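job 3f2a | input accepted
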Amino acid sequence: QVQLVESGGGLVQAGGSLRLSCAASGRAASTYTMGWFRQAPGREREFVAAVSGSGSNIYYTDSVKGRFAISRDNAKNTMYLQMNTLKPEDTAVYYCAARLARIGYYSGEYYYWGQGTQVTVSS
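job 3f2a | predicted structure (123 res):
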């Protein structure tokens, strides 16, 4: 069982930056693959980025490559998403997710979810 709590969302102007955090608690949290998803109003939840338990494998969706950076600190049981050069189309609720398997790209592949944190990018 893993519990996930996101923080760091907010309102930022286009071109600005935010860093999201996801604190994990529970048994062997560092062994879980963890990822970030986002959901904009009226749209399906979509994959943003994911990192393997060791941190050695990382994947991004094409629209955030070069702008976002995912990382994790297993000593702190925390995952991060550094978001730079934010665009209005990045506006969404961002969710942290975890699974006990290799990296997946679909929300249905993740079993554990946080409550979400709102990111709003104004133009």
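job 3f2a | The chain has a mean pLDDT of 95.
job 3f2a | closed
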